[in-house]
Design brief:
- With 264 residues, the chain is an all-alpha fold.
- It has a domain of 66 residues: DNA Binding (I), subunit A (Orthogonal Bundle).
- Helix content is 76%, strand content 0%.
- It contains nine helices and no strands.
- GO terms for molecular function: DNA binding.
- Its main location: nucleus.
- It comes from Arion vulgaris.
- It is found in: Nucleus.
Length: 264
């Protein structure tokens, strides 16, 4: 009787191992399908965006063609330059590539920064002549003024009732999913399951978390009454406010200076 029992156990173990391997393959394929679906949705959105751009460019092309025809321009008879001729014509406007491994996005960003700096450097003498400091320094001061450092000693804001529910039930849900599926639950599935469980709660069960939220609010208000924020340096704030030029004033100065140069 011992040999048939051993054979049955071996057969059951083989079936369980096969089912486990099938489950692993199933979840791997399911995860891959979800990734492909997300990438397909991104491609569809990108195609729609490109179609809108093409439609707008066609409309601009028709408008330009109409305006050129009204002025009698012979743009249809103009010769289109070849690629190497364009490189020779516009080579001076293009910034050299510093590294061979830079992609197109970083190259475009570098070119935009270079053109921005060259445009600012062309009007720097005019701004300095009127007593205005550089635009880069003004932008840095404005950034320092707008961005405030977070105080680590400040009281922590209370989380709402749903976040408290997620904090208490997240670990339980992860353990249950791991016991059932033998793998960790994905982040989006975890969020979805927590939201479904929260919506399935009756008002009496939700009241526990709302009471926790009210206690956290009282704690936060009590700590805020006793909290003293760090004093901000007044010199830097005054320097930022006094040195920040308004856009309209700069435009007026540029207009008047250009008008004086034309009159001269």
């Amino acid at each position: 009787m011992a040999e048939p029992d051993t054979a049955n156990l071996r057969a059951q173990l083989e079936v369980i191992s096969k089912e486990t391997s099938f489950f692993k393959k199933y979840f791997a394929l399911r995860k891959r399908c979800e990734q492909l679906q997300q990438s397909n949705e991104k491609l569809v959105n990108r195609i729609q965006h490109v179609k809108k751009l093409i439609k707008r460019y066609k409309r601009d092309k028709r408008y330009l063609s109409t305006r050129l025809d009204e002025h009698g321009d012979n743009y249809r008879d103009a010769e289109v330059p070849h690629m190497w001729e364009e490189d020779q014509l516009y080579g001076n406007l293009r910034t050299p590539r510093l590294f061979q491994g830079i992609d197109s996005n970083s190259e475009a960003e570098t070119r935009g920064r270079f053109e921005h700096k060259s445009a600012l450097s062309s009007i720097q003498p005019l701004l300095q002549a009127h007593g205005i400091r550089s635009m880069d320094a003004t932008a840095k001061m404005r950034k320092i003024k707008t961005e405030k450092e977070k105080d680590p000693n400040a009281p922590k804001k209370p989380a709402n009732a749903f976040l408290m529910f997620c904090t208490t039930q997240r670990t339980v849900l992860q353990e249950e999913y791991f016991k059932e599926h033998k793998e960790e639950i994905a982040h989006h599935e975890l969020t979805k399951s927590l939201a479904q469980q929260w919506n399935a709660l009756v008002p009496e069960e939700k009241r526990v978390y709302y009471e926790m939220y009210e206690r956290e609010k009282e704690r936060y208000e009590r700590e805020m009454r006793n909290y003293k924020p760090k004093p901000e340096p007044g010199s830097e704030a005054s320097a930022c406010t006094t040195s920040e030029p308004h856009t309209s004033s700069i435009n007026e100065i540029l207009k008047t200076s250009f008008k004086e140069e034309l009159d001269a």
